[in-house]
Amino acid sequence: MFIDIAKINLKAGKGGDGAVAFRREKYEPAGGPYGGDGGNGGNIIIQGDEGIRTLMDFRYKRSYKAENGENGKTKKQFGKKGQDLILRVPVGTLVKDGDSGKVIVDIKEHNQSFIIAKGGKGGRGNAKFATPTRQAPRFAEPGTKGEERTVILELKLLADVGLIGFPNVGKSTILSILSEAKPKIANYHFTTLKPNLGVVRVDEEQSFVIADIPGLIEGAHQGVGLGHDFLRHVERTKILVHVLDASGIEGRNPIEDFYKINEELIQYNPKLKEKHQIIVANKMDLFQSKEWIDKVKEEFEPLGYEVFPLSAATMEGINRLKYGIWEVLKDIEIEYETFDEKADITFEESEKDAIIVRKENGIYIVEGSFIERLIYSTNFDNHDSLRYFQNTIRQRGVVDQLKELGIEENDTVLICGYEFEFFD
Hints:
9 helices; Spo0b-associated Gtp-binding Protein, Chain: A; Rossmann fold; 3 domains; metal-binding; alpha/beta; GMP Synthetase, Chain A, domain 3
């Protein structure tokens, strides 16, 4: 089975909590704060691996979680960082945002890596909160949550040349002759259920990768047959070799076939219209082909297409095709276009620390991930910790925003589910 699309859920590791600890040593009864910081959470990293050919593993496992950071310890010892989780994917995989469908990163090379979900930061231990006026803080900071996101993995072949055409026109046979690939070949439609790759050697240090894109049919751009599964692989190729059955023995018109296939390509992605095409008039060994080959040349050569008469059965014309492909290919710069819209995603998201202050049904509400962490780290039974909490929300502009909303003395403020009475 050839799996080339998968949707997975990712959760980076949470940062470890800072520790509350005090120095307790002989002859030093009033030792200061001694709590260490928590370790950062593990990242989730996407990495290209040319040894992997499909996304099959991601079909059976959909959720991935990196290791959490270790909590801080006494003696100012930092917690251990959470281990990164590396997800290996085939070269040619697009990583898309699960909500928008836009591209986050395009994995084009072996060992190319990208942090797709960043681990949370470790919280500071109470040793970090000591000041000349607050010498024994009895509070620490919790670790932040790791990033969570849903992504779509989509594999698109990184082939230089794509063989396209209706089913049973001889694409797999041509691939097997041009390269060492051994695709399954038989005389019935949709023999090829996955794209086959082969390497074609032209000369010393001159070669190219060719892919047999499985047979397309009308309606492929709408997903008819296996349309979308195959059309995405066409986008990566630098040139297309359009194979026509010039014998017409199956009752089809090869000229009409050409236009039908190209209409499917353009309907799927209009930019494919710009891709260079070479036409192969296959099955020239059959007597019915003489008339059609002349008609194909008359139709397409004036439009700028080069037509290669060929017999995959007898291999006549195969070398001319090979060198013809190379002549076009060698002048095209290496650029594997995705044609997909890129996502505007930054992983140092400012929203993480955003504080939302609003009024709803006469109640003042303060919320946000920063405030959640602050509440979690505050020891409300400790005067220093409470003062730190009050100073922080004042410095972050929460009090000013509440005043703008019309808050008055003794009004209730709901902060992350906890009720507070407002005093200025």
